[in-house]
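Whiteboard transcription, Tuesday session. T.W. wrote the C-alpha cells on the left side:
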C-alpha cells in the first residue's frame, strides 16, 4: 500500500508510525529493515506470543489513565498483576495481566464508571508476562540487519523517533513487554506541527485513533475509496518535483539524527532555530506552489550540518545521511562541490 500510495501522490511523510505489530510495517516503509526480514520477525513473534498462552487483556473506555493505573496497582500482587498495556487515546486504554487480575480489574473499573470489554486473546501482550518470549525474540533480532530509517519512525515504547540500528532492535524487544504509547506518539507528532495523518494499513483503526487523539487533524484512510480519491486530488503527482522533497527530506533527517548533546542553549541555537527556518521556508514554498532553488537547498544543507555538529553526530552517520538525501532526491549532480565530512 505504501509503495502504491507514493506512486499516486506526492506526499513525503515527516514521520512514520505503526501500532504494535504495525511498527514492523512502518520500519519496512522507512527502509530500516527488508520486507523478507520483517516477515521472518513477524512470523517468529507470532509463534512466541502464541506460546505465551497465559494471561488476558481488556479494553477500558471512559476512564482517565491515572484512575486505571491506580486501580491496577491496588489489584496487583507479586503473583497476580494487571498493568496498562496500550495507551491508545484519552478514552481508550488497554490493560493486560494474569486472568484473575484482569477479571478483578473489569469489576473494579466498571464500578468506577468505565466501560470494560474483555478481549479475545490468549496472552497478556505488551506486559511483563511476555518477558520470556521477548528474551527469545531478542536472540532472533541480533541476526537481523537494520538500516537507518529513511523517515523517522516514532517508537511505540517512547513516543519519540527511532534513530539508529541499535535503537530499532531495542525497541522491538521492549515493545513486547512495554505499553504501546500511541497517545504519546500522536502528541509528539502534533507538537512537531503534523496536522495530516494517513492510515496506510487495511481498515480504518489507526484513522479512528488519530481522530480520537487529535480531533482537529485532517485524517485519511488509504483503504477508503473516497479518502484515496481526495488524496490523489490534493497531492496530485507532478512528474518532476525533486526539489521540494529535498527540504522535507532534510528536515526528516535532522529529526532522525541521534542527539548526543544535552546542552539546551547549544541545542536551541544549533538545532531548533535552523530547523524552524527550513520548516517555515518549506511551508511558504508549498503554499505558493513554488519549487526551491539551489540557494534554498544550500540553506537546508547548512541546517543539516549545524544539526549534525550540535548533536555531535558520528561522521559515519553523517555520510550515510547525506548520501541518503542526494540519492532519494536525485540531486547529486546539483552539488558537485559538496564535500562529505571527514574524521
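and on the right, the sequence the group agreed on:
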Amino acid at each position: 500500500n505504501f509503495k502504491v500510495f507514493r506512486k499516486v501522490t506526492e506526499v513525503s511523510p515527516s514521520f512514520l508510525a505503526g501500532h504494535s505489530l504495525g511498527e514492523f510495517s512502518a520500519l519496512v516503509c522507512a527502509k530500516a529493515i527488508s520486507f523478507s526480514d520483517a516477515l521472518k520477525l513477524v512470523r517468529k513473534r507470532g509463534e512466541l506470543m502464541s506460546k505465551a498462552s497465559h494471561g488476558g487483556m481488556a479494553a477500558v473506555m471512559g476512564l482517565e489513565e491515572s484512575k486505571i493505573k491506580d486501580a491496577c496497582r491496588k489489584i496487583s500482587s507479586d503473583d497476580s498483576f494487571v498493568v496498562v498495556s496500550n495507551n491508545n487515546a484519552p478514552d481508550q486504554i488497554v490493560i493486560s495481566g494474569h486472568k484473575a487480575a484482569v477479571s478483578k480489574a473489569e469489576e473494579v473499573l466498571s464500578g468506577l464508571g468505565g466501560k470494560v470489554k474483555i478481549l479475545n486473546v490468549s496472552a497478556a501482550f505488551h506486559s511483563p508476562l511476555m518477558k520470556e518470549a521477548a528474551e527469545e525474540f531478542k536472540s532472533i533480532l541480533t541476526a537481523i540487519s537494520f538500516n537507518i530509517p529513511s523517515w523517522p519512525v516514532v517508537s511505540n515504547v517512547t513516543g519519540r523517533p527511532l534513530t539508529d540500528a541499535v535503537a530499532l532492535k531495542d525497541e522491538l524487544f521492549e515493545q513486547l513487554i512495554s505499553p504501546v504509547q500511541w497517545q504519546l506518539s500522536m502528541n509528539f507528532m502534533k507538537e512537531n506541527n503534523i496536522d495530516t495523518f494517513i492510515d496506510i494499513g487495511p481498515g480504518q483503526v489507526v484513522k479512528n485513533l488519530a481522530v480520537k487523539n487529535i480531533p482537529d487533524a485532517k485524517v485519511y484512510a488509504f483503504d477508503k475509496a473516497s479518502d484515496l480519491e481526495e488524496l490523489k486530488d490534493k497531492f496530485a503527482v507532478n512528474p518532476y518535483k525533486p526539489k521540494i522533497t529535498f527540504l522535507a527530506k532534510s528536515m526528516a533527517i535532522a529529526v532522525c539524527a541521534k542527539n548526543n548533546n544535552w546542552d539546551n542553549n547549544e541545542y536551541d541555537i544549533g538545532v531548533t532555530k535552523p530547523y524552524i527556518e527550513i520548516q517555515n521556508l518549506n511551508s511558504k514554498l508549498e503554499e505558493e506552489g513554488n519549487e526551491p532553488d539551489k540557494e534554498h537547498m544550500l540553506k537546508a544543507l547548512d541546517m543539516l550540518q549545524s544539526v549534525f555538529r550540535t548533536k555531535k553526530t558520528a561522521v559515519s552517520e553523517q555520510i550515510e545521511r547525506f548520501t541518503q538525501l542526494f540519492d532519494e532526491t536525485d540531486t547529486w549532480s546539483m552539488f558537485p562541490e559538496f564535500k562529505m565530512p571527514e574524521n
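Someone added at the bottom: The chain is about 55% helix and 10% strand.
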